[in-house]
Amino acid sequence: MISQERIKEILESYGGEITIGTIASHSALQILHGARQEGFDTLLITTKDREKLYRNFNVANFTLFVENFKDILSSEVQDELIERNCVLIPHGSFVEYIGPKNILDKLEVPCFGNRLVLEWESDRRKEREWLTSSGLKMPREVKPDEIDGPVIVKFFGAKGGRDFFLASSEEEYWDKIRGREKEPHVIQEYVVGTRFYLHYFYSPLNDEIEFTGSDIRYESNVDGLTRIPDWEKYFSPTYVVTGNIPVILRESLLPEVFEMGERVVKKSKELFYPGMIGPFCLETVCTDGLEFYVFEISARIVAGTSLYVWGSPYTWVKYNEPMSTGRRIALEIKRGLETNRESELIW
Ligand code: ATP
Q1: Rounded to the nearest 10 degrees, what angle do helices 28-37 and 48-57 cross at?
Q2: Same domain, 169 and 262
């Protein structure tokens, strides 16, 4: 793994002048727009086919072309990024395209946030250990002979909401898994309720959790199936995210929402020092008993925050000015630079 000393050395060579960069996907528009609002120069790493779109939005001071996003790992591209004093902001597609292990072992360009979190969130078992030891409720995992109601079966390595199936009895499970029994998977209680994807920001500089908003992912085809009577006769559900819908919570739920965020951050400091830094998202279902079940954590900016480029209802109350997550990241880096604490944020 690339050592923090090496990253620190590179960061020091920037002499306090930072260009904020990311790759052309996911929440790049918001990240670069927010960085500009805080006065940073911005850099977009893109493939030829995507450049036109980002040029249209005019969010980048510099554009760096690659054939393939994995080329970021080449010494040529890394040298250029370092030459330009770049700090990268990882987002979901960034991690997906480059790979968690490559980021840990090969990427020398300083990144906002603690890279060690990649080991904890990319492994479903470790993720469960982190969340449950934080005292959060997760959907129960069961063995085939314990299936006593609707379950969702998830194959490991399933990406982007495909390769799941639903079952409601042991018999149905064996029927649907036939031929793939040996592939690693989990059988999870299916929790019915309102899905809230809760957005947080943890500032190590202030030692403070901010609750910055929430969304509901619109997933295809499952969210379209309710329009079809007896859909299960014709279709199997998939959970591919195609968009995000804004939602706010009953205010009486907010104390628990805060508490969940605080617990996850506190535990992260024990598990992978210095723990969570910056934005993260708890993916939850809230039942009619008003209980939250967390089925996943995303330990970086999530795409649902792009609903709130102009700020969310919560960030508006806190800041009285538009504060997107992209801008909040840039603000944290700016405050880090002003107090000589930037190396606490960039790993
Ligand atoms: P991604 O990495 O894109 O977030 P994933 O492939 O890791 O997705 P999950 O996030 O675990 O998959 O689940 C995808 C979707 O399936 C969720 O957004 C939710 O709609 C549904 N889902 C997952 N687990 C449960 C559960 N236990 N109960 C009810 N719905 C669930």
Answers
A1: 40
A2: no
Give the span between the Cα atoms of 272 and 232, in whole angstroms. Answer: 43
Residues 182 and 73 in one domain: no
At which residue do the structure tokens 């010494």 appear?
A: 75
CATH number at residue 70: 3.40.50.20
188 lines ligand 1 (CB under 6 A): yes
Print pLDDT tens along the chain (347 aa).
899 999 999 999 999 999 999 999 999 999 999 999 999 999 999 999 999 999 999 999 999 999 999 999 999 999 999 999 999 999 999 999 999 999 999 999 999 999 999 999 988 899 999 999 999 999 999 999 999 999 999 988 766 778 899 999 999 999 999 999 999 999 999 999 999 999 999 999 999 999 999 999 999 999 999 899 999 899 989 999 999 999 999 999 999 999 999 999 999 999 999 999 999 999 999 999 999 999 999 999 999 999 999 999 999 999 999 999 999 999 999 999 999 999 999 99
CATH number of the domain where residue 268 is located: 3.30.470.20
Backbone φ and ψ for 3, nearest 5 degrees, come out as -80, 155
Closest approach atom of ligand 1 to CA 188: 27
Token pair in block for residue 55? 């040029």
Q: Is 139 in the pocket of ligand 1 (CB under 6 A)?
A: yes
Amino acid at 105: D
Looking at the structure, do residues 75 and 223 belong to the same domain, yes or no?
no
Distance from residue 239's CA to the centre of ligand 1 (Å): 7
pTM above 0.85, yes or no: yes
